[in-house]
Amino acid sequence: MQQVKQWFHNYLGTLNLEALFSSFLSKSFQVIFTIILLWLIRQIITRLASLYFHQAQRLTSHGSRQETLESLVKNLIQYIYYFLLTYSILAILGVPVATLLAGAGIASIAVGIGAQGLVTDMVNGMFILLERQIEVGDNVTLNNISGYVEKVGIKTTVIRGYDGTLNFIPNRNIGTVINLSRHPIRTQVDLSYFSDTDLDHFEQIIKAQLHAMSPDQTLTAKPVLMGIVRNSFGQLVYRIKFYCQSGRQDDIQAKYYKALSNALQKAGIHQPESQSAVKTIHFTPSSYSPKDLK
Questions:
Q1: What membrane topology does the UniProt entry give (predicted)?
Q2: Is residue 4 part of a domain?
Q3: What pLDDT, in 10s, does the model give residues 84-126?
């Protein structure tokens, strides 16, 4: 025990505490200065990128495309910032980073194998962006997850579900992409009727009500009268088809179903309380073929 104390005392005697303290202060200052400098550079570049893409959004009609690219660029800036920060701090502390990177050997192979998923994420993410499969704000379904694209990053794509839940999907796991925002969405209104209903009068009321309603800005085409068809329950209904902007199909369906049902009721035409009350009747298909509302 006495020998250990003696060795420890001799070791402390060989240390230049003043030099160590001076070196500690110097390296601490360098680390703090490097962190602040890189953070400021990151903030400036991020701000410039935001200004550029916001300006581009005002000059182009592809606003969602610019938002997607902005998200990707900011993601790249973040990764580069953390890499430079880590490299700089290790270099200041005297760690031979270049030597470690050059002579990693087996460790490099292990890291390479572990990074295969990251590389796959990046490659798949680039193809998603280049092919414009999805963009920020699109209404999509990815891997049975439906919602709106919140962010497209290098490694992951973020989908905000209809209930507000954020879903982080690795890009390598994205298979079939269902994008509902590129073209108009079709929706329909089915109106039931009793077997003794005058179908000619029934159709006239529907036409008159559709003409009387103010054009809905979310509709991309005029309503189409499909006439009498069988629904998924095998029952006969009068169907009107609508094409509207993505995400507005439920609003359109509710709006027109309510308006048409009220118009029929005011005209003295009553509908069954449930679809099960609809009775099958015989009709001439040629008399009620699909036709555009004119």
A1: Multi-pass membrane protein
A2: no
A3: 888 888 888 877 766 666 655 545 555 555 566 777 777 787 7
Q: At what angle do helices 63-92 and 17-59 cross, to 10 degrees?
A: 170
Domain residue limits at 173: 133-179
Order across the sheet with 236-244: list the strands: 185-191, 236-244, 224-230, 291-292
Strand (E) positions, the chain? 139-142, 145-152, 156-161, 166-170, 177-179, 185-191, 224-230, 236-244, 291-292
Q: Does the pLDDT value for residue 155 go beyond 90?
A: no
From residue 23, alpha-carbon distances to 10, 14, 29, 31 in Å are 22, 16, 10, 12
244 shares its domain with 258: yes
Which residues, 6+ apart, have CB-to-CB distance to 24 below 8 Å?
none
How many domains would you assign to the chain? 3
Q: pTM, whole model, 2 decimals? A: 0.48
CB 142 within 8 Å of CB 179: no
Q: Which amino acid is at 115?
A: A
With CA atoms as reference, report the closest residue to 153 among 121, 176, 181: 121
Whether the pLDDT of residue 284 is over 50: the answer is no
Spatial CB neighbours of 84, under 8 Å, sequence gap ≥ 6: 38
User: Does 102 lie in the same domain as 40?
Assistant: yes
Tell me which of 83, 101, 124 is where a domain ends.
124
Residue 93 has which token pair?
A: 């502390």
Contact by Cβ (8 Å): 290, 239: no
Q: Quick one: DSSP state of residue 142?
A: E
Q: Domain check: are 155 and 234 in the same one? A: no
Is residue 200 located within the same domain as residue 172?
A: no
Residue 64 in contact with residue 48, Cβ under 8 Å? no
Q: At what angle do helices 63-92 and 116-130 cross, to 10 degrees?
A: 150
The pLDDT score that the predictor gives to residue 125 is: 78
